[in-house]
């Protein structure tokens, strides 16, 4: 199964990286519109606590969405790799003047400040990157397992939030993914063209 997952990662990353700068720009604008529409449908007017991430490796660009959510008075949190176990994530408040540093993957994250960390269960929405997704809401990540290990500490049937939302280009959709026991399915996937819900 791991070989099949690795092959899907390779194929989808290649497709994602083949998108032009113009296609990425249009996709980022459409993401902003679609997520705003999603918040309206959820009757979320302002001051939601939203976990989000900086895009990497030709992922759907979140920069326009981040700026738009700030203007609408939502509070944003970025993932920070746990400093001790190195395999799970904290979600720390992110503002325009937040001190930042590059993590071991070269991705910027806020400098750890325990007073700015939001417990996972207090986030209203958790927006997650992914390499591929399927018709059942399954998500295939980069292989590090950070989100799955972070979410594994919570019994999904007992929590009300956060709502788990994957962000992806439409080219990252596949009919079916090989699923492992630790994979956590998502509530929604938002692409520039469509909002999927399970």
From TrEMBL:
InterPro entries: FTHF_cligase, FTHF_cligase-like_sf, NagB/RpiA_transferase-like. It is an enzyme of class 6 (ligase). Keywords: ATP-binding, Coiled coil, Ligase, Magnesium, Metal-binding, Nucleotide-binding. It comes from Pseudoalteromonas arctica. Its EC number is 6.3.3.2. The keyword Metal-binding applies. Belongs to the 5-formyltetrahydrofolate cyclo-ligase family. It catalyses: (6S)-5-formyl-5,6,7,8-tetrahydrofolate + ATP = (6R)-5,10-methenyltetrahydrofolate + ADP + phosphate. Residues 5-32 form a coiled coil. Substrate binds at residue 59. One of its GO terms (biological process) is folic acid-containing compound biosynthetic process. This is 5-formyltetrahydrofolate cyclo-ligase. ATP binds at residues 139-147. GO terms for molecular function: 5-formyltetrahydrofolate cyclo-ligase activity; ATP binding; metal ion binding. The keyword tRNA-binding does not apply. It comes from the Bacteria. Its cofactor is Mg(2+).
């Amino acid at each position: 199964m791991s070989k099949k997952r690795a092959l899907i990662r390779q194929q989808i990353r290649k497709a994602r990286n083949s998108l032009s700068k113009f296609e990425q720009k249009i996709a980022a604008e459409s993401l902003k519109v679609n997520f705003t529409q999603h918040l309206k449908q959820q009757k979320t007017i302002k001051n939601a606590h939203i976990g989000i991430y900086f895009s990497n490796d030709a992922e759907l660009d979140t920069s326009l969405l981040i700026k738009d959510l700030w203007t609408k008075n939502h509070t944003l949190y970025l993932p920070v790799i746990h400093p001790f176990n190195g395999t799970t994530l904290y979600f720390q408040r992110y503002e325009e003047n937040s001190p930042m540093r590059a993590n071991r993957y070269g991705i910027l994250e806020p400098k750890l400040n325990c007073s700015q960390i939001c417990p996972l269960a207090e986030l209203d929405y958790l927006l997650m990157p992914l390499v591929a997704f399927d018709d059942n809401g399954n998500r295939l990540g980069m292989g590090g397992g950070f989100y799955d290990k972070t979410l594994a500490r919570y019994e999904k049937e007992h929590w009300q939030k956060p709502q788990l939302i994957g962000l992806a280009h439409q080219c990252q959709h596949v009919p079916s993914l090989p699923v492992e026991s630790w994979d956590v399915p998502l509530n929604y996937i938002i692409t520039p063209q469509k909002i999927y819900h399970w």
